[in-house]
Task: inverse folding
């Protein structure tokens, strides 16, 4: 479990192809400094398991399902990556509950700076229509593992605001229109839908 507060920007040093999988080797001066085999680390919002770590460089297997269902499928050596270690019980929950289980990918549609010269940017992101029902105005969503507040939402897109810190310390500052981002909707919304659907069905 994660909180969506990115700890550092790591770098993909090597991507080694395997049958229906890939082995990622990632430079992580902070998050890799105390990592051990078996630990979970969020990589662009995808929960990966550390299989080896040497001097703050860790390796993780990425199976074919993950490569096909997330933006990690297009990741190449030299790419910057959002990294976050799993939360500990008792930690401050600075963002929201994030599982690291990507629900789908979205596409950056536009980036707009306010006309009054404010330092933040409005970013519009297209999303699969099947996810729209889980995204609500002023609700939470994880984009590339970053916990963000939804400003507006439509049937196939939503918008978020990026403050300078988010632009500087996460990959979202690098994303240009047309690029893919990983999306994870609020898990509470999915559980509520599941429970209410069963309840309504049992009453019929």
Result:
């Amino acid at each position: 479990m994660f909180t969506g507060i990115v700890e550092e920007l790591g770098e993909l040093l090597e991507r080694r192809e395997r049958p229906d999988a890939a082995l990622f080797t990632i430079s992580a001066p902070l998050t890799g400094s105390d990592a051990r085999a078996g630990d979970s680390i969020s990589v662009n919002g995808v929960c990966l398991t550390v299989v080896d770590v040497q001097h703050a460089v860790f390796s993780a297997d990425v199976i074919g399902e993950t490569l096909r269902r997330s933006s990690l499928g297009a990741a190449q050596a030299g790419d910057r990556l959002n990294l976050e270690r799993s939360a500990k019980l008792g930690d401050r929950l600075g963002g929201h509950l994030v599982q690291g289980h990507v629900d789908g990918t979205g596409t950056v549609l536009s980036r707009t700076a306010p006309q009054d010269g404010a330092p933040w940017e409005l970013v519009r992101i297209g999303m699969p229509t099947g996810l729209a029902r889980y995204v609500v105005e002023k609700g939470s969503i994880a984009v590339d593992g970053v916990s963000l507040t939804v400003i507006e939402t439509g049937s196939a897109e939503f918008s978020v605001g990026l403050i300078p810190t988010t632009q500087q310390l996460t990959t979202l500052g690098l994303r240009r229109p047309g690029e893919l981002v990983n999306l994870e909707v609020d898990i509470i919304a999915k559980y509520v839908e599941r429970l209410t659907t069963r309840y309504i069905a049992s009453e019929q």
